[in-house]
Amino acid sequence: MAIATQNKALMFGYRAYIFAFFIFLAAPLIAAGTFAFNDSLFPSLPWQGFTLDWFFNDTEPKLGMFHDRRLLRGLYYSTVIGVMVSTLSVFVGTCNAFLFVRGEFPFKNVFYILMVLPLVIPGVILGISILVMASNIANGLEDGYNIELEFLRPGILLVVLGQFSFITTITSLVITARLKKFDYTMEEAALNLGASRWQVLRSVTLPFLRPAMVAAGIVAFLVSFENFNTTLFLVGSEAPLTITMFDRISKVGSTPVLNAVSFALIVGSGLLALISVLVQRDKTDG
Amino acid sequence: MQSDIKRLSLILLFAPFALWIVLLIIVPHIGMVVLSLKEKVAPRVYEYGFGNYIDFIQEPIYWNTLLRTGSMSILVTILALLIGFPIAYYIAKIAGNRSRGALFLLCLIPLWVSDLIRAFGWILLLRESGVLSSFLQDTGLVSQPIEFLYNDITVIVGLVYTVILFMIVPLVSTLDGMGDDMIEAGYNLGGSGFTVLRKIIVPYAMPGIVSGCIVVFMLTAGSYLTPILLGGKNSSWFTEQIYDQFITRFNWESGAAFGFLLLAFTTLVVWLGLKLTGQTLANTVAKS
Question: pTM value?
């Protein structure tokens, strides 16, 4: 609208560029998803006809994803980890939002930068540093007191902590942005009407924050679900889905069952992302 | 009384924040640095020193890999900015109200699909028996299968693909806040398209540009999946060296030193970028 449109050809070229970009964006996703329906043992051309075997078939060699024990277990662990990370990080993120929007304390700006920092630390480094710390504690306890604490060894707890360490920044930023838009007079009105601080929080402020909290929770779940770099160093025997899939892709070579999983994940995360956008959009205009 | 309650609630709110930052960020990083200064002199006997860092300097493979990772990450960042800026500008300023939301959503959805699946998609398209190779053979352009994987160009394309949305999203939100009247004023005062871009649009979008560049650079330098899967085992990415030291060789001391070097190097690049553009971390990344 604002740019000078004197040159129609230029505009056409611009549109073509945008179109080409979206093709580029979609191509690998389409490739990863489509081969799930190819009736062949390999995810490559030629097209051998449509099948749903890679989802539902229960015998080798075409073992479908819903009968593949290792993939299902990976999916289960990913979900458990995702739910834990998203609950924890939304809780801490909400506290952080109140702390930074409402609180007044010295060095607030420094602390705020500390809060943002985990987002720009490479995930690999978060992974190794937490691994090193947990192992130091575990080794120290074992050598000094002969106590063996299994949960400090690579496993679900460390994966949750590792992911939580940077996902909390994301949830904090989302919820902080929402709390900044809050109209103080609403709280004052409730207080004047005789509500206690706790009642105000529960019936005025938190409901106002709810869309942002839900959206932040969904985003946290998605980021946790697909995280690889941090998880790689902290994973124990309970491998989440991305780790299981990476092992298959890099070692065994690929069969279309991986495409079936990809298809399910693309659709699933697309829907969740859509919900998180819609939840936030509905009420922000109000 | 009132101020006591305020102080108590401040402390209660501060506690989770402090626990998180201290226990999961500060202490682990200090631990990593301390570990990186340890040298194994005999089984279970350690001495403090800079041995691991000296090893790094003396072994060209190591620092070459770090420099390669760094320079390729900068290249990827520049490419992502050049490719992404027109897209963001289109979405924020040219697209109509209705198509804007749809286009933005189309950008967001791939963002939430795992890197692994996206890299897997590229493998299916580009490998020797992949879609592109078959297509070229079918059309008769080439007579033999072509391997598009396992070279630097593919790694760069794959990385740009993986991170470009992290460039576009902050750019769209910054450009969205710019009034059309500013651009029109630029034209009315006789500026050419290029002048308006250089003097008005880019300075206005600077926080978004810097924010996108920081996130993209960090993600690229710290990425593991895309270089490994698209570049093969010899992609020589620095995170691969870290993994190798930690998991394959079980040499945690040297792995920790590598981790610290990667962190120091990326921080230095980001710091230089902030200085050069006159931005701060608080008004860029923190806002997106």
Answer: 0.86
